[in-house]
Amino acid sequence: MIKKTTQHNIVPANKTALLLTGGGARAAYQVGVLKAIATKLPRNCPSPFGIINGTSAGAINATAVASYASCFHLGVKKLEWVWKNFSTKQVYHSDFRHVFGHILTNMLSSFQSDHLNHPPASLLDNQPLRSYLKSIMELKRIDKNIANGYLRALSVTASSYSSGESVAFYQAKDSVPWKRAKRCGEQSQINIEHLMASSAIPMVFPSIKINQAYFGDGSIHQLSPLSPPIHLGANKIFIIGVDQPTDNKYLGFQPHYPGISSIAGHLLDTIFSDTLHSDIERLERVNRTVSLLPARDKHQELKRVETFVINPSKNFNAIACEHYDKMPLAIKMILRLIGVKAHSESSLTSYLLFEKSYTRHLIEIGYQDGLNQLDEILEFLDIKCK
């Protein structure tokens, strides 16, 4: 490992992108990886990522990092404090009155006329998250960081229930909106509603209205997760995913049909992980094609983009089982109704367990994974320590 010294030289990284994927409470892992990178940077060093992109819970982390692009170390430290002190009640109502009252309201509204404006249907009410984000986010800093050259662009991806498109809301000085099949980029002033929309896990949290359209979790329609950073000018993309290694005990023969909870967990795993793998494969094919073209034949829009992906080394489902008892009783009862128990095969718990004992565990895993690959990460980011 490279020895830490007091003299650092960071090559300007205004076209190096950070991509943070979705995953509910699993996004705590991303903070640990960022913390590992910060160990090699001086305390007043700007972010090594000029383009920052996030989806779902990763959008919240991305926006926090972008807000402190002028001081990467401080931004990561503040983000770590938030995740290390999380509780479920800061994300969604978890007491009996609110939980069952919310479900009853949804049930009653289903009997009302379709012409009435019903409240958004969802299993849980995440209104506390909106209030919490308003209290901790410093969104005004984003424009200042862009103006001062510390940040090139920030994008937050959400899925439109109205059009079926993946919409990347981005904040930048001089980027051009784009339109492709089932996806587009829309220049916006990123606010709390964009973050709420991007992190609205389908069926779990309510949809959010932005500009007369309704949006949900950014991972739903995201067929090309790499599209926003590439359109915003990235030539390198550092990706922190939450795609966990498969536990062998869940493979092979099953003596019974998969339950609702197991199927729901598989659906969330697919939404948050599968499209990224296929998009990276497509990018690798494009890179190979570009390398074979003579310089005179290379089109302006066809360029080589390098990627580096880091994913958890531990299975989050097993870790969530260890911390299951920390969940509020009302939430455990709701999950029990759909078959989620302490040692259930479902991955639902790993997405909804916003308790500090669990998030601290994931931060530590991310930190160790980051340290284990730190030499490769520094080389990819072109960070040199002398």
Task: Describe the overall structure.
- The protein has 386 residues and is of the alpha/beta class.
- Helix content is 41%, strand content 15%.
- The strands form two sheets. Strands 2, 3, 4, 5, 6, 7, 8, 9, 10 and 11 form a ten-stranded mixed sheet that branches. A two-stranded antiparallel ribbon has the order 1-12.
- Helix 1 crosses helix 13 (356-372).
- The chain is globular.
- Mean pLDDT is 85; it is low at 1-13.
- This is NTE family protein.
- It holds the Pfam family Patatin.
Instruction: Tell me the strand percentage band.
Output: 5-15%
CATH C-level category: Alpha Beta
Largest sheet composition:
10 strands, mixed
Radius of gyration, in angstroms, nearest whole number: 21 Å
The CATH topology turns out to be: Cytosolic phospholipase A2 catalytic domain
Instruction: Output mean pLDDT.
Output: 85
Low-confidence stretches: 1-13
Notable features of this structure?
386 residues, alpha/beta, Cytosolic phospholipase A2 catalytic domain, ten-stranded mixed β-sheet, 41% helix, 15% strand
Give the SSE map:
Layout: E1 8-10, E2 16-20, H1 28-38, E3 51-55, H2 57-67, H3 72-84, H4 96-109, H5 127-136, H6 140-147, E4 153-160, E5 166-172, E6 178-180, E7 183-187, H7 192-198, E8 208-210, E9 213-216, H8 227-231, E10 236-240, H9 260-292, E11 306-310, H10 316-322, H11 329-337, H12 348-352, H13 356-372, H14 374-381, E12 383-385
Parallel strand pairs: 2-3, 2-10, 3-4, 5-7, 10-11
Antiparallel strand pairs: 1-12, 4-5, 4-9, 6-7, 8-9
Helix pairs in contact: 1-3, 1-13, 2-3
